[in-house]
Amino acid sequence: ATRFHGQMEGKDEMRCLRKRSAIPFLGFLITFLLFLNLYIEDGYVLEGDKRQLRETSVHPASSERYVHTFRDLSNSSGTINVTYRYLAGTPLNRKKYLTIGLSSVKRKRGNYLLETIKSIFDQSSYEELKEIVVVVHLADFDLVWCENLVQEITRKFPHHIIAGRLLVIQAPEQYYPSLEGLKRNYNDPEDRVRFRSKQNVDYAFLLNFCTNLSHFYIMLEDDVRCSRNFLTALKKVITSREGSYWVMLEFSKLGYIGKLYHSKDLPRLAHFLLMFYQEMPCDWLLIHFRGLLAQRDVIRFKPSLFQHMGYYSSYKGAENKLKDDDFEEDSIDIPDNPPASLYTNINVFENYDATKAYSSVDEYFWGKPPSTGDFFLIVFNNASKISKIKITTGSDDRQNDILHHGALEVGEKLVGTKKGKQCSSFITLGEFKNGNIEVQDVDHKIAFDIECVRIVVTAGQREWLIIRSISLWTTQPPSQ
């Protein structure tokens, strides 16, 4: 009886173990298969990758010769063999700076694709237009709908198509893996699983096509409004990240919108989406992909450069009122904090260090209650002319962790001390109000080139202190 009782306990433990291990199993499987894929040559070449500037025809879906299983899509070298239809435009031989990719299907209620394309072009300057190419993947199997939409696109954007700035493509239906009998993970209804699984494949084929068009790629949805001069803002951020490792930079906190990649990573991402197309939604897979390539943390920038404008979802026409409250129409006005060293004598909490307040990434400095005379100091590598300074403290969920009493100062005459560099002369620009301060026309108020910016605590407080962002705008010197 004792032996039998022990066996039963052992079986119960095994059942519990299986339940506990089921949750991380998918993550382990993804990790194993992705890193297995790292050993495969990154030779993802389209069958039409020689970029023959012609339109290819769709073969009948009923022909057994063109009925492909998922396994057939990838050969041993990792290539994805898809013959795309060119519905409008042809790719240029010269690589651009940025490819903007979006995939679109027929919606039951409302279609925002034309508005999205218009926003991309209208919000870009003539010089910016030279550096971008927009690729639209019409991923609906209704060929009549596709043809009608292509006619509208061609009528509204002919000069962009002629200039090679706008391409409309389609991956024929016979290249898709099976969309029937899919896994019902997360207890989603069958039609929802089919929708999101197909969407993963739609994006995979789009990414695969865009691999060699530009140096960088940004993913949008087909119902997005862009901020003005978004490309200039993107370039400024990319330049600021030179020398640092990143896989994905985010310029919106919504869905698949505003996710930026190096184009060299697109083949691997396309293959990854195909490999796990029925497991989970695209935005979840993107998080796994970023983590597996060793970018552990989200790198999201503010203000957001793209806004969701659609009211109805492409899935069943359901309402979708999601908005990005960090979106700003005039993205060109993002700060350009000059290189600097940061110092503070405020007791820092964990890893919320001073540099996070000065970064454009959505992070912040967090310190324990400051005392009168405590400071937060920015020392520029080179003296700078500053036109505007804006500092915000506190956060949405910790609204009382603001600087209740403080002053903003700028300084000159840099000297070395035992604790680092410091300015020997300061001028006060203003006092914090409700935890924030913004000073315009600093270069008109201050006669010298600024070497230091300092936040000084003028009265102690019991609350902790979050410095959410320090934003500086420099005055560019006139060209010689």
Automatic annotation (TrEMBL):
A GO biological process held by the record: protein N-linked glycosylation
InterPro entries linked: Glyco_transf_54 (IPR006759), MGAT4 (IPR057279), MGAT4_A/B/C_C (IPR056576)
Residue ranges crossing the lipid bilayer per the database entry: 21-40
Domain MGAT4 A/B/C C-terminal: 340-468
GO molecular function: acetylglucosaminyltransferase activity
Pathway(s): Protein modification; protein glycosylation
Record keywords: Glycosyltransferase, Membrane, Transferase, Transmembrane, Transmembrane helix
Record has RNA-binding as a keyword: no
MGAT4 conserved region domain location: 64-327
Protein name (record): MGAT4 family member C
Name of encoding gene: mgat4c
